[in-house]
Design goal:
By secondary structure, the protein is α+β, with helices and mostly antiparallel strands. It folds into 2 domains: 1-21 and 281-319; 25-275, Jelly Rolls (Sandwich). It has helices at 3-17, 281-317, and strands at 20-21, 27-31, 51-55, 58-60, 64-68, 75-80, 88-98, 107-113, 119-122, 130-137, 150-157, 172-177, 188-195, 199-205, 213-218, 229-235, 242-255. Strands 1, 2, 4, 5, 7, 13, 14, 15 and 17 form a 9-stranded antiparallel β-sheet that branches. A 7-stranded antiparallel β-sheet has the order 3-6-16-8-10-11-12, with no helix packed on it. Helix 1 (3-17) packs antiparallel against helix 2 (281-317). The chain is globular and about 50 Å long. The two termini are 19 Å apart. The relative contact order is 0.21.
Length: 319
């Protein structure tokens, strides 16, 4: 007779599990369905509800979204249909750069920009963009002393061009070498975490599975436009490679209270950890409302179960 109460408790536990917490118990995550993309990628009408694609992009629903094939002079793109309006977010992308050539290029990019779905010369995307670009550059043009493949971030103001001749050295916000990210033996991933006005962090996985390498972290993040589109692009020139997107996992982040004692990061390429961002008012009310609903479910379920139990007990006394 306690089934209603147990059901309520089970429901509360399930709902709680849908909201993830970090090791400090302060950061909660909610999946951004509008910017998450996984197999089979397309619906029954061979379209994606949340993403558009173009150029030389091909989609194999059981395996990958291939932005470029291992052929010369290709470019392809994949962009969200709706803008990214979350204040704080985390985007994890599994990708694969691979080919059989001794010489290869050029690379692929992840975008958070005002523009969307515009082909161009910057890893398959238009130049003079406004927003944030993260480039995985596999071909070295002219950057002495830098190991390639190289991962770098650039903040575009809508006017400044990316300089291919020196691999974006003049406009680099932060970056790191990533030798071994091409033809890796483990799933290759990048994870970009952003707290508005607080921190920006890029982590990479390519050496060992579930082992993240910090590329850069800063507590002076760039001013990303309030309304941006999430996208990916790639290009090949005389040299080529396969550039595949396997999955995109986007999450909204918010802080529920308290502050962890974490070190403060340095700017740009510094690898120092960031301090815990402070919670916003909206996040606090959201979490309070969630706990209130869960409490009501548990209390209500317990009351119904107890009432049914007493009623059954009275009936048994009549016999």
């Amino acid at each position: 007779m306690w089934f209603p109460a147990l059901s309520a408790l089970w429901l509360a536990a399930t709902a709680w599990g849908a909201v993830n917490r970090d090791e400090d118990g302060n950061i909660r995550t909610i999946s951004l369905r509008t910017h998450t993309l996984k197999q089979p990628y397309l619906d029954s009408e061979m379209q994606s509800r949340w993403y558009d694609f173009g150029g030389d992009t091909i989609i194999r629903t059981d395996s990958y979204i291939r932005l470029t094939s291992d052929r010369p002079s290709q470019n392809g793109w994949l962009f969200s249909r709706v803008p990214m309006t979350a204040t704080n977010w985390e985007i994890t992308v599994e990708f694969k750069i691979h080919g059989s050539n001794q010489l290869y290029g050029d690379g692929f990019a992840m975008w958070l920009t005002k523009e969307r779905g515009q082909s161009g010369p910057v890893f398959g995307h238009a130049d003079n963009f406004e927003g944030l670009g993260v480039f995985i550059d596999t071909y070295k043009n002219n950057r002495p002393g830098v190991v390639f493949p190289y991962v770098m971030a650039m903040v575009g103001d809508g006017k400044t061009s990316y300089n291919k001749d020196n691999d974006g050295k003049d406009t680099e916000f932060a970056g790191c070498p990533a030798r071994g990210i091409r033809n890796a033996n483990v799933p290759t991933k990048l994870k970009l975490t952003y707290f508005q006005d607080k921190s920006l962090k890029l982590e990479l996985q390519y050496q060992s599975e579930d082992e993240w390498k910090l590329c850069f972290e800063t507590n002076e993040p760039p001013a990303i436009p309030a309304v941006t589109y999430l996208g990916f692009s790639a290009e090949t020139g005389e040299l080529s490679d396969n550039h595949d997107i396997i999955s995109i996992d986007a999450k909204n982040l918010y802080v529920t209270g308290g502050s962890a004692n974490k070190p403060t990061p340095g700017k740009g390429k510094g690898s120092v950890k960031s301090s815990q961002p402070k919670e916003s008012g909206g996040s606090s009310w959201t979490w309070f409302f969630f706990k209130f609903i869960m409490f009501g479910l548990v209390v209500g379920g317990s009351y119904v179960g107890f009432t049914a139990y007493r009623a059954n007990k009275k009936k048994s006394h009549r016999f």
